[in-house]
Amino acid sequence: MPGFELFGDKERDEVNDVLNSGVLMRYGFDGKRNGHWKAKELEQALAKRMKVNHAQLVSSGTAALTVAMASAGVGAGDEVILPTFTFVASFEAVLALGAVPILVDIDDTLTLEPKAVEKAITSKTKVIMPVHMCGSMANLRALKDLCDKHNLLLLEDACQAIGGTYEGKPLGSYGDLGCFSFDYVKTITCGEGGALITNDDAYYKNADHYSDHGHDHIGSDRGAEDHPFLGYNYRISELHAAVGVAQLKKLDTFLGIQEKNYNILKKELSTIPEITFRTVPENGVENYSFISFFLPTEDQARKVHASLSKAGVDACFYWYDNNWHYHRKWAHLKHLKTLSFLPSKVYDQLPNYDKADFSKSDHWMGRTISCLIKLGWTKDEVHQRAETMAKTIRENL
Ligand SMILES: *Cc1c(COP(=O)(O)O)cnc(C)c1O
Questions:
Q1: Which residues contact 396 (CB under 8 A, 6 or more apart)?
Q2: Per-residue pLDDT tens for 341-357?
Q3: CATH topology (fold) of 3-251
Q4: What is the reported pLDDT for 4?
Q5: CATH 3.90.1150.10 corresponds to the domain 252-395
Q6: What is the atom index within ligand 1 of the atom nearest the CA of 194?
């Protein structure tokens, strides 16, 4: 998945444009910048690639989620439904707004199970946030129907799935708002950075203001700009955006390499009748950044994971025991241990997660192994890897 694997002259040229002018900020300094507006250029290119009206760059994927929700008016006491399998950032972004994260079970798509989502909806629910973990998506049609029925926002955390599609639409563009991360290990990278996309003019305008201290960005004199409301600093720098300009141009090449490598691994692993693959919903196309599969038992999954690593098959994850991506090891989040103040509403409304039954999620995650698809493998290396993986799995069944 990582864009840093194929990084070089193109990125350097874009960054040098910025270094040569010395204008490292995305706003203002019009006369000095030699016509370079890398952040704006990347926003326009991203909106075009994702077939949406608007893209707003920010400093990270976590910032994108926070700004996306703020731009749609999500705040104190609002409940946001998200899956038990995600990255801690999605949970953190909800709390950053004083809103209440409600964890909900996943199914064999490894993302939100629509039936469990429906059960979790209350009068305080404002957002359904599917997280397209490891490159593939939830049954977005079912989630969209729930949103329409209950008047909720559909916010896609597409940080790990840029380039995938659902019903022919780029992931991130299907819901009301979609978010991407361009951190160092994502499919394309800016070093640090993120973006939100939307077709909604008001959300976009709010996001544009909120991510820069509420500046309205009208006119060319930053000092004279108005501030319709408060905001924060979630700006991306020109240097980071410059890297992204070069990386986005390579996205389709990266996706092609990932798909090819994925298919070689999948073909080999498909010869093992005991393993099954993560379900990709009908009309969905993943971005092939990971290959995820289920072993028959938790015990076998643990053994296979350990053996793969011993056999030199790197970058395979057993998320069930991981403390960043699965709810089991999230005591600090579930008990809201924080250095700062959270509205008392959050404490009052947070479910008692210690008593929550996530056995459905455990049923899938306990048996899941996901392996990263890399861009830099030679043909021989992928075939060798496929053989070693299949052999190792067989030995542990
Ligand atoms: C990486 C990631 C984020 C956060 O992105 P950052 O740019 O690292 O802040 C959010 N959600 C998911 C699913 C991610 O993988």
A1: 300, 303, 304, 307
A2: 888 888 889 999 889 99
A3: Aspartate Aminotransferase; domain 2 (3.40.640)
A4: 85
A5: yes
A6: 7
